[in-house]
Amino acid sequence: MPPHPAAHRAAVLGSPIAHSLSPALHDAGYAACGLDDWSYGRFEVDERGLAAFLDGLGPEWAGLSLTMPLKRAVIPLLDEVSPTAAAVDAVNTVVFTADGRRTGENTDIPGLVAALRERGVTRVERAAVLGAGATASSALAALAQVCDGEVTTYVRGPERAAEMRALGERLGLPVLVADWAEAHRGLDAPLVIATTPAGAADALADAVPGSPGALFDVLYEPWPTRLAAAWAARGGRVLGGLDLLVHQAVLQFELMTGVVPGPLKEMRAAGEAALAAH
Question: From 90's CA, which of 1, 106, 255, 278 has a CA 20 to 30 Å away?
Answer without folding.
Answer: 278
